[in-house]
Structure formats: C-alpha cells, structure tokens
Known about the structure:
Elements: H1 12-27, H2 33-45, H3 49-56, H4 68-85, H5 89-93
Helix pairs in contact: 1-2, 1-3, 2-4
Amino acid sequence: MSSGLPELRASDAERDRAIVQLREAAAEGRLTLEEFTQRMSLAVEARTHGELDELMHDLPAVSAPAPPAARTRLRSAFATSEARRCRSPPCAAGR
C-alpha cells in the first residue's frame, strides 16, 4: 500500500486489495485465522493508507500464491469470516 502519504484517504478498492493480501498471507501460514479476522476487520474500517500499511508492516510486500491444499483447507474458514464482514446492504448486493 505504501504511497508515501500515510494520511491519504484509502479507497474501497485499496481496502479490498489489503484484504486479499491478508487472505493470501493467512493461506501461506503467515497469519493465524484469528490474526486474519482481526486484521481484516481493521482493513474494512481503515480510513487512510497509513492504517492499511500498519496491518501489513510484518508481511512481505508481495506474496506467492498459496498451494492448492492450503487454499482448500482455509476456504471455509475465510468464507465464514467474509460473511461476517459483509453485513451492510451495498456489500451484500455486490455478492
């Protein structure tokens, strides 16, 4: 995320990209399900690039795709987390 301007407001697309990066980090075993869920919630609520950057500070900038077995094992857990995140009508309509 690091734009060099931590106070710059984050867009919905930037928050979504952060969530994808967090999901990939969890699939690689870099985050526990609990850490992923907590950081995902904070990413949804983030207002600035600095807030998003803080969620990624201890993760590699670009991560490799998770092996298929890891994706399969974590898919149901993440689906449940996503369902909890998506409670407002605009999000639900986008599903």
